[in-house]
Amino acid sequence: MEEQKFSDTSVGSNESTSQDDAEVMRLQLVGDLDLMKQLQASRGVSQPELAEAARSNPTKFAELLQKSRERQRHADSERTKELEQLKSESTPEAQQKLEEHLREKAVAENLEHALEVIPESFGRVTMLYLPVEINAHLTKALVCTCAQQTIMSLKCAEACGIARLIDKRFAGVARGIGTAKILGRVHSAQLKVADLYLPCSFTIMEAQEEDILFGLDMMKAHKTCIDLQNGVLRIQGREISFLSG
């Protein structure tokens, strides 16, 4: 989750590296596959080597971590010296560099604050999917509060056997981040969620990656409630768990 801990800037720490500290960080890194991939692909100093050591050599990992922190302390010291020198100069170029240093410092402090109070923002967010069924065709629907209408891909409509019900008089173009062709609308089809059968209207789109976007229109129609604390969608007295991945 806190991927910045292993970046060139944040691996550096004013605290000495202990074996326990290094081992905790190593285990955290090994348990985060996304972060391991990022480190392996990184162009930062020793980052791919750090990732490999985390996987296979705890002792070497601790050594690399210590070296990385020493490099960071040295870099911090050099930046401090440069900053003090810029403060003593009055040329426009020096003032511009000073302003950039101060800006970078503010960004770093903002990052540190975010890592402390909202570390979740640096992790991977699992989208809200529900297992659903239409005409015995099993699929999943993405619960999407940014979609005004409930949307279905043409491929899914064909798989569910409802493509023949598309009313082409409702064809058009959807505009948002880019544009997409609307083929029409299926005015009513039964969407099975758990043991509920919900009559739903579907806007059919040609280029749609998700099978179904469960939009605000049907959420309001069926009086749903998204409960993020418990990871469920509440609807008609039922609590339906979101898919974990």
UniProtKB/TrEMBL annotation:
Molecular function terms, GO-annotated: aspartic-type endopeptidase activity
Lineage: superkingdom: Eukaryota
Similarity comment: Belongs to the DDI1 family.
Record field: transmembrane: none
Any one Pfam family match given in the protein's UniProt record, by short name: Asp_protease
Biased composition (Basic and acidic residues): 68-87
Protein name: Aspartic peptidase DDI1-type domain-containing protein
Family annotation (InterPro entries): Peptidase_aspartic_DDI1-type, Peptidase_aspartic_dom_sf
A GO biological process held by the record: proteolysis
Region (Disordered): 1-24, 42-61, 68-97
Residue intervals of the Aspartic peptidase DDI1-type domain: 119-227
Keyword annotations of the record: Aspartyl protease, Hydrolase, Protease
